[in-house]
Amino acid sequence: MSDSPKNAQRITDEADVVLIGAGIMSSTLGAMLRQLEPTWSQIIFERLDGPAQESSSPWNNAGTGHSALCELNYTPEVNGKVDITKAIGINEKFQVSRQFWSHQVDNGILSDPSEFINPVPHVSFGQGADQVEYIKNRFNALKDHPLFQGMSYADDAETFAEKLPLMAKGRDFSNPVAISWIKEGTDINYGAQTKQFLAAAQAGGTEIRYGHEVKDIKADGAKWIVTVKNVHTGDTKTVKANFVFVGAGGYALDLLRSAGVPQVKGFAGFPVSGLWLRCTNEELIEQHAAKVYGKASVGAPPMSVPHLDTRVIDGQKGLLFGPYGGWTPKFLKQGSYLDLFKSIRPDNIPSYLGVAAQEFDLTKYLVTEVLKNQDKRMESLREYMPEAENGDWETIVAGQRVQVIKPTGFPKFGSLEFGTTLINNSEGTIAGLLGASPGASIAPSAMLELLERCFGDRMIAWGDKLKEMVPSYGKKLANEPELFAEQWERTQQTLKLEA
C-alpha cells in the first residue's frame, strides 16, 4: 500500500518566487527581487491573455502620480484647519516611486520614460465661497512645505481663464472660484510601465504564463503548492514555490483565504466600479492641459473625486472626466457576477454587516450614480466645463476596485478602508495587496514594505542595493530638503520631465 497521500498532486514546476497577476504590483516586486537576488527563479501567472488589462490599464485608472499635489481628499479640513499629514505621507511615497523608476531607466529595465510618464500640471479647483476658502487654506498649509515647492494660488477670473481656458468658457464668475496648481505634476500610463517591466523580466529569464488562472494555494511545509488552470485548455498544473505574492487585484482576498493566511481572517471586500466620460473632439482636447481635481460629493468614496484629466496614452493626448460611481458584484472588470457572494464567509459577515450599517451615505451615493443617464453625467461635467456638449463625449467603463473592509470588532465590527492594505503571513512566505487608491503610484513604496516584512533577515545584506535603487530609503525627505531637491532634480532629468 502506498504511503502517498490520496490526493497528492504531481509537482510540474518549481520556482523561488511565484507572482500572481501581470500588473504593476507584481512587475514592480519582480523587478526589485531580480536585482536583489538575481539567481532566484520567478514565474508570473496571469488569467488574461496579456499584461496590465485590469487596474493597471491606462483606461481603467486616472493615471495620476498620486503625490497629493491636487487631490483634495488627502487634505481634509478638521475643525476649520486643513490637515496635511496624509498628503505629506502620500507625497513621500511617490518620491520613492520616482527614484525607483529613475534607477530602472538608468539600468535599462525601463526603456522609454516618455511612454509611461509625462509632465501635466496638477490643479486643485474650488467653486462657491466655502470651497474657495478651503482651497486658499489648503494652499497656505502646503505652500511652504519642502515637498510642495512651487505651488501657486489664484482666485481671479483672468488667471483662471489663462490656466484653464476650457473651464472658463461660458462660466459665470459671479460664483467665486479658486485654484492652486503645481506645474510639475505628472500623468502616468501604468500599463505601458508594466509592459516595459515585464519585457525586461522575460529577457532576464522570468517565465510569464498568460491565460493561466491560479485556482488554489496550499502550504506544503515551508513551501507553497500553487494550482494553476490553463483557461483555454482546462489543463491543471501545480507549482512549488518558496515565496508567493498575490497581486491579483480584487481576487487577492479569496486567494489569500485559500492559502489559509490567518492574517486575512475577518477581512471582506466591497466592489466599486466606475465610468468615465471621454472626449472625442480633438480641438477640445488640445485646449486643456491639466489634471483638475475638485471636492467629492457627500458620501462619495475618495476614488470618486471628480476630475477633468489630461491623459497621454500611447503617445496620444486625451481628455477624461469622472469617474462616476457604479456598482457590480464583480471583483474584477473581467470577473464573475458571483464574486461578491462567493467571498462571504462566516468570519467576515460581521464586517459586512457593520459597514452596511455605517455607510448609508456611500450606499445612497452609489444608487444615485448608478441611476444617472448620459444627460445627468453631462450636468456634472458642466460644473467643470460649462459649455460641454453631449456630442463631444462618450461613456467608457473604468476599472473595477475592491475596497477593503477591515474587521474591527465590537461595536462597529468593520470599517471601510480607502487605501492599500498589505497582508502577509508571520513566516513571510506569502503576501498580497488588498484595496485600491493610491495604488499604482506607490507600488515601489508598498513593495519595499513587503520586502521588510517578508525578507527581514536579508535587509542588511540588501542595504547597499536598496539605497542604490532608492537613495532616500530609510529617510524622510520632508525632513531633508537638500536630499529632496537633489533627488527631484535627478529624477526630473532621468524621467525626461524637464521642460
From TrEMBL:
Swiss-Prot/TrEMBL catalytic activity: (S)-malate + a quinone = a quinol + oxaloacetate
Gene3D superfamilies: D-Amino Acid Oxidase, subunit A, domain 2 (3.30.9.10), FAD/NAD(P)-binding domain (3.50.50.60)
Keyword RNA-binding set for record: no
Record carries keyword Flavoprotein: yes
Keywords, comma-separated and alphabetical: FAD, Flavoprotein, Oxidoreductase, Tricarboxylic acid cycle
SUPFAM superfamilies: FAD/NAD(P)-binding domain (SSF51905)
InterPro entries, per the entry: FAD/NAD-bd_sf, MQO
Known pathway: Carbohydrate metabolism; tricarboxylic acid cycle; oxaloacetate from (S)-malate (quinone route): step 1/1
Molecular function terms from GO: (S)-2-hydroxyglutarate dehydrogenase activity; L-malate dehydrogenase (quinone) activity
Enzyme Commission number(s) of this protein: 1.1.5.4
Required co-factors: FAD
GO biological process: tricarboxylic acid cycle
Record-linked PANTHER family: L-2-HYDROXYGLUTARATE DEHYDROGENASE, MITOCHONDRIAL
UniProt-listed NCBIfam families: mal_quin_oxido (TIGR01320), PRK05257.2-1 (NF003606), PRK05257.3-2 (NF003611), PRK13339.1 (NF009875)
Family, as annotated: Belongs to the MQO family.
Protein's name according to its UniProt entry: Probable malate:quinone oxidoreductase
Organism: Corynebacterium callunae DSM 20147
Lineage, opening ranks: Bacteria, Bacillati, Actinomycetota, Actinomycetes, Mycobacteriales
